[in-house]
Design a protein that fits this description.
Length: about 150
């Protein structure tokens, strides 16, 4: 099946900052799947649209198990990335589709890029690769809007 390209283009992606730490577990045998699922995950993001260049910039930070007082054994991870996007011919798109591409799709792409980096960083670690669980992007967007209303 031939793929149809999205009007949303990822022009650039950069890893801006990363932190990886290993906390030695006290127990010898751990259920890694259960441990990884119990990690707290925090995601924050900032979106900026440039009217002149018609580009969208999105900065996204993901923190996994980063609570200094309550960090669990294993991995503490922080990654921050920046992406630049453009929508081809935005005037021809319906407003709902344009908003979906600008907010939902850009954030989803950034989280997926950072998910891959997290996996690569941890893959050589003592507990193997940590794969960030699926994220409810809609809820993230709602929470962000809720913080400012």
């Amino acid at each position: 099946m031939k793929a149809k390209f999205s009007p949303l283009q990822l022009l650039d992606f950069k890893l801006l900052e990363s932190h990886f730490e290993f906390i030695i577990p006290k127990e010898e045998k751990l259920d890694l799947k259960e441990l990884f699922q119990s990690y707290a995950v925090e995601i924050d993001f900032r979106l900026r649209e440039n009217e002149e260049t018609k580009e969208i910039q999105l900065f996204t930070i993901i923190e996994v198990n980063e609570d200094d007082e309550n960090s669990l054994p294993g991995y503490k991870i922080m990654v921050e990335g920046g992406g630049t996007f453009r929508i081809q011919d935005p005037e021809s798109l319906e407003e709902n589709l344009k908003n979906n591409l600008t907010q939902f799709s850009t954030l989803n792409m950034m989280i997926n890029n950072l998910r891959n980096i997290i996996y690569q960083i941890t893959n050589l670690g003592p507990m193997g690769g940590y794969l960030l669980p699926p994220i409810d992007i809609t809820q993230l967007l709602r929470d962000k809007v809720g913080r400012f209303s």
